[in-house]
Amino acid sequence: MTRIDRRALFTSGAAAALLAATGVSAQPQRGGRLRAALSMLLFDQAVAATVFDNLTEVAADGTLRGDLATGWSSDAQAMRWRFTLRDDVAFHDGEVFSAEHLRSLPMTVEVIDPVTADIVLDTPNPNLPYLLAHPGYEIRSETDAGTGLYAVQKLEPGRHFIGARVANHWKKQSGWFDSVQFVQFSADAVRSEALRDGMVDVADIAALDPLSDPRDFQILPGGRSPTHIAATSVAVPLSVGKSWPLDNLRMAERWWMA
What we know:
By secondary structure, this protein is α+β, with helices and mostly antiparallel strands. It has helices at 6-9, 13-21, 40-51, 128-131, 188-196, 245-249, 251-254, and strands at residues 33-38, 56-58, 64-66, 69-74, 80-85, 108-113, 116-120, 150-156, 160-165, 179-184, 202-203, 217-222, 225-231, 234-235, 256-257. The two termini are 33 Å apart.
């Protein structure tokens, strides 16, 4: 029997037929609102990942790629890193993104020109591009605006967030929801009940409420164990990032409504 290459299958016409037969959309669909019940830590991180961009990002398959950066290189000691940047990005407040905005990072930045900057370290770090994809290294304007796919429509710090999709964002093939809504609940039981009762579409919980029907949900891994559960009304790509929960905190960017 000929072995079927799953990657080849999902780039062929057979993929659409297979997914249609199982009730899953073959292509991401635009529209709808993603609602999430999150713990305090994940609430803050998810809001940041939704509103802001980093210089780099970890893709769902674990590879590192540019986000606001288009390329990077270092000296032999890995202490001076040069980053080249996108020239087609604007912050939500209308300010044009440039190398000057890298000064919002917690490290020494030397601006070379509007699309080039050096990050100078005190000690060698060959993993700096990966570090810059981590939470806490988002790029911000002087007014604390972001360049992410969703702009703040409402924010009660630590409690409630609504973000609206930015029209004509430079990420053309991402961000399928019209809006996203995050609500912070400290108790696991409350987040679990909110998911069970259909008040949200995803929650950062490791197990379903005992009264939930498992057929209505999908348990998604994060690292070595489940970290969040989503309703089947949400379509999740075949590959889900596991470096951090919630698809590397990019669920608003990578998921869509089924």
